[in-house]
């Protein structure tokens, strides 16, 4: 996939390579033309020859100037387009309903791979045309030197391959350290993003010093890796400059010896020395290209590790009934903290699930949202196994509203209507917020008590909320997130602890409103809130990873001490 993104700009790279090669060829011919000018015009005093060769020089400079300009433009475009395509592919892979790309990686690390690493891989496209140009410059120089003197031409032709091989060997430490540099930088970025997202919590528990220490360590490791990579870059460039400088000096020495012996003319000597000096350019290009390729290979491995990450769940080809009734059945489900769970959730009913162990609740939500498939057992929706469906089909039918669901930057209305088709357009045409509140989305706002949140904001539902809803209190965020889940109105809605940060009066109101707005639709409340559980039709208790009791809220309060302890303490 990485190779496809890089090679997708083949036409641009080919055009840029031709132009760059033309530029280097013209540059190589400049000292040759000057040498001929000396022999045919200066030495003979011919004005006509002088004018003729000056015109040829002017044409050469014009061609090399324009060819370089358009070659650089094409190479840069190929580089940016390849990086852009990689960013798109990385974004699609991370957002793939099957998941898996985020496993073992902090969000900041993924961002670093999608930006810096994608950019470095894209630069390979920008380096290739100039590498081709360097080869063209060397070939033209070698041919010119062969014409001037066979020993000089053979020296360049036979001496270049060993130099290129040594350049590759010298570039290996740079490649290794460049990969470590990017890995540490990504970890530091991920740590910073993680700490910033939890800054309010850290301040609340007085853990600022621990957070600073954690980031300082990650930053120091990143700095150390960057310094090692920089030293490798400096050593790489210095070694190549020494090699190429010695090689050029040897070419000039051999040319001077031939001139002294009378084997070549003064013009040939000037051309040979000029070509020797010109050779520094191609070798510098090779040094730069080799560095870009080394860094690109290291970054390509990181990009490929994300793109090739195995999916968390398989994409089945099964189909749900056209009208989903919402009957859920768990048969012998074992996953994480769940062990051999059998559960039957009737369609159109409001069911409570009490799981005193947070790990059991999290495992249940993962399975119902198909973020993971159970190790054993099966989960069915209307008689169809979830593992046989595509994850996007499952999530269209079963919406799992997590306890820690984030809001995004935008208006309150945009957050609530994010999953409601056409709601944004409906609001855009209706400039009266009170009229919009009377629509289905307004009903969801009322049911979640998010209408009260809107009433306290300066512009009501049109008030802009900052990233992750940080401009709202915890209770306000919960109510807006619940309103978003209710507004989506899926066939099956699974909500996890939606009222832990709201007061008791509001919680009681929300409980009755959820029962009303979801009447006739399958709803599962994973919670230990007695107010919410009192509004359910049936409650299931999962204790020790398995189902231990079932009944109404009132029945369980009187008959199950474990249930009573879980919901009343």
UniProtKB/TrEMBL annotation:
Keyword Amino-acid biosynthesis on entry: no
Keyword set, alphabetical order: ATP-binding, Membrane, Nucleotide-binding, Transmembrane, Transmembrane helix
Domain ABC transmembrane type-1: start-end pairs: 15-295
Membrane topology qualifier: Multi-pass membrane protein
CDD domains in alphabetical order: ABC_6TM_exporters
Gene Ontology MF terms in the entry: ABC-type oligopeptide transporter activity; ATP binding; ATP hydrolysis activity
Transmembrane segments: 12-38, 50-68, 127-148, 154-174, 238-260, 266-289
GO cellular component, one term: plasma membrane
Cell compartments where the protein resides: Cell membrane
Highest taxon of source: Bacteria
Domain (ABC transporter): residue spans on this chain: 319-569
Primary localization class, coarse: membrane
Record's protein name: ABC transporter ATP-binding protein
Species, as recorded: Nocardiopsis gilva YIM 90087
